[in-house]
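Protein record

Derive tokens from sequence
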Amino acid sequence: MEEEAVIFLLQRAISGKHQMRSAFTRGSVRGSIYVEGVLDADTISLLNSTPGIIQKSSGIIHQSIDPSDWVKLLTMHNPMTVVKAGQWIRVRTGVYKGDVGFVKCIEPWGAQVLVVPRIKTLTPGTATSLKRKRTAIRPEPRLFDPATFLSVFQRKPKPQRDGTYTFRRLVFDHGLLQLDLDLHSIFLNSAGIPSQILGLFRLASHPALTGTKFPCPEEWIFEEGERVIISSSEKEATIAAVKSSHLEVDLVSNEGIEVVSWYNVCKTFSPGDFVCVTSGQSRGTMGWVDCISNDIAHLLEYKEKGNISTSSDDIKVSFILIPADIY
């Protein structure tokens, strides 16, 4: 509506009659257009006839703007929609509503956002069922792969010089889907992000994600005082502080405090520790650590009846040990 009002003004303004130098709108700010000129009777009459401009009982409300702020108008943003490149957001509308995205860059019209694709792969039986029930099944998030895409859809995505692939209006970049969204269609993420989604972003190895501080997956639990091993140096440490974007650990070698990424540490456990699995297929399982071998943890599952644990195979649980999926 704002753009239509601006176009109407620019088309109807008559040189010599309407002393209007410019009219524009900012995509990040809704509900207003900005006109530079002399607010005389002719200009007011033109504004009154402009579609979308709502007249109040007191007429058009105008406010003078100091010349030093004129240029700032061209780059202003609504504080409620301000996001920056490199931030994690969630999509507010459309097919990817509620999904986590990463802001690749900010443009005058909005933002380029990377999300994990959800590509529909319907079998003939599923398609018939959907026509009958008129319900939508949301596809699971998966990274884009050209070969898989070709085998499923029998159509070849078009490779571009910049390394991306396009299919119709879709743009796939390093396995991720690039969306062009206005700033009202996204909002800063304030909730936890599942480890599955963060794992797919990391697996994509997109250049825009290089050096990015990935947030802690929502399933991972770190607490001060826990024992960890720094994966890159294999040094033992104790968690000194849990921050929003990283951990501070106190090296047992008396080398002081070191800042480390969530993904650069693994918790250490000893046989006999009572633990709870927080992610994966064994989520919710509780038991005692039997042994850990080659990053595989073997647990003796806790049984409520009598609170007894044995080493029989029917209650033995094994899973790949990732940085913080048990506590």
User: Anything to note?
Assistant: The first strand starts at residue 20 and ends at 24.
